[in-house]
Specification:
alpha/beta; 5 strands; 183 residues; five-stranded parallel beta sheet
Length: 183
């Protein structure tokens, strides 16, 4: 009887482990604290594959509805990163980048400059930008948007790389195999 129970338990464990639908990293801390991954959908057919290298560029071209809101595209990048981690995609297969330009450019400002431009309001994007960088996300800003917005490079958050032009960054990253989301 013990052999039958042990054998049955092994079959169940193997079946669950091979299902591909199980959330492989349950209980593990997520890369971006405080941001929920996508909710599990029973019997979903398309889910992230732990063997695939995900190269995704999030295009932050629009401002949030209010300057006191976190930019929704940053929240989407964080949620996507957490979803990949939650389902077991290893960190080395999660190549995530963000490009700020056009209306999304103010998110890159250090808090003191953001406050000066927004009636004393703190930059709501700072914490998520820092968390994304800590999780290995590349962060880029369009130099043309920085010039057009009259932003001194010293006022850009240190986590963010200043590039020549968003168009150049987007094209270069797409040529490297990144899929662009948004914009």
């Amino acid at each position: 009887m013990k052999k039958v129970c042990a054998g049955l338990a092994l079959v169940i464990v193997v079946a669950l482990g091979m299902s591909g639908r199980a959330w492989a990293q349950a209980g593990q801390p997520l890369p971006i604290p405080g941001v929920d991954p996508a909710r599990e959908v029973p019997n979903a057919r398309e889910i992230p594959d732990a063997k695939t290298e995900y190269k995704v560029l999030f295009d932050v071209a629009n401002a949030p509805a209010k300057p006191t809101d976190v930019n929704p595209m940053l929240q989407a990048a964080a949620r996507y990163l957490n979803t990949l981690a939650k389902v077991g995609v290893p960190a080395e297969h999660r190549k995530i980048a963000v490009i700020f330009h056009q209306g999304g450019t103010p998110a890159i400002l250090k808090n003191t400059e953001f406050k000066a431009r927004n009636n004393g309001q703190d930059n709501p994007n700072t914490a998520i930008i820092q968390a994304l960088k800590k999780a290995g996300v590349e962060l880029h800003v369009c130099g043309q948007a920085v010039l057009a917005s009259k932003i001194d490079p010293k006022d850009i958050q240190p986590e963010i790389q200043l590039d020549l032009w968003a168009l150049t960054t987007i094209v270069n990253m797409e040529l490297r195999g990144y899929v662009r989301i948004g914009g």
